[in-house]
Amino acid sequence: MRSPAAACLIWCCLNSMLAAQTGYGPVAPAYSPSAFTTTAQLDPYAMVVPTDYIASPMGAFPDGVTDGMLVPMANDLTGRFSDRLWFSAEYLYWRPEGMHTPALATTSSTGTPQNEAGILGFPNTTVLFGGRKINDDTQGGFRLRGGMWWTPAANLGIQWEYFDLAEQGDGFARSASGTTILARPFFDTTNDRETAQLIAFPNLVEGQLRIATHSKLRSFSLSARGGICPRCDGLCACGPSDRMDWIVGYRCLKLNDAIRFEENLNSLVTATPGTIALNESFESSNKFDGIQLGFVRRVHYRNVWGETLMRVSVGRNEQTVQISGTSDLTEFGVTESFTGGLLAQRSNIGTHSRDEFVMIPELGFTLGFRVTDWLDATLGYTVLYFPNVVRAGDHIDTDVNPNLIPEETVPLTGSLRPQFYFNETDYFAHGLSIGGEIRF
């Protein structure tokens, strides 16, 4: 009978032979300490990742698949899409360029004679609305940006942008009884002097005047974006994580304004009772369509980055000015409607359009702060210059032939005033932005 020692020796030999044939036996660690990189020491947001792998025992994965295949496949998918998509959202706090307006509403102190009431140039006359820039206060809005790199090397991609400033409005409204003075001033071209339409005057007329204005700016762009640096062969000094890109694409920019008047007058003269309801509107539109060219430069320092955007858009600005006016006169219970009001007459009423070639430069600065490996907080400043625009306030002609005021004198004597003519100006908008950017 064999001894226990001999049996034990035989068992160990058989076990060693079986392990050598099947691949089972002591398994080496999946990762060795030398397999880890020191990336975490360079980037506080980086994850510690092993650089080499040892295959797991046979049977741990389906037939034909090993961890040596799965890990590179996962890394390949991650590398293909990591940081190739980006999206940002910002709140805008901008100050847009206001529009000029003539004096549109006046008053005078009690006791002022009728031939001086509300007329510009007299010491008792006070301008209630107009005679200054309006719609020029700081305004809120939003801006959205996004894009995608087509290639893993991030050297060609597409991006879009949309921003919208909230509609800004200024206005005036007053209801005056027959004990106060309220007027709309204009220049009488027939008698060559300043005068005014009385909306309220003691024992003559009472009424209400409402003036509403609004201005709005918005923009959309779609562009291709390509990398210049760091693949620029040493033409510029870029850090290993810095980059400079070109952008080229389409841009649409819209600027709209409007000034509207509403009057309701009631005669206090017993011999000539009646009412007048007047409505006037001056609206302007600028619609730019063209190409944009520019550069984007981003530099990094630890967890902070700075970006500069310089671009210019070249194309056509479609200028449109619409003027309308109506008056409803009621006397002895009979109402008649007429074309024209006070500053809108048949001599300037209509839709007037033309196209102008313009160049629109824009400069932007953004400072980014890394919050996580996929989220940044941003703070920026933008300056936009839109030349050769039409504004509603610049197309109000206060030179009026009173014989045109409904009901028009027939035959008409005097000049056809007010008149329409294009009056261009320049538009600036600038301000701060605060938001965030995500990458995925």
Automatic annotation (TrEMBL):
InterPro entries: BBP7
Pfam families from the UniProt entry: BBP7 (PF07585)
Signal peptide extent: 1-19
Keyword terms: Signal
Protein name: Outer membrane protein transport protein (OMPP1/FadL/TodX)
Organism: Crateriforma conspicua
Upper taxonomic lineage: Bacteria, Pseudomonadati, Planctomycetota, Planctomycetia, Planctomycetales
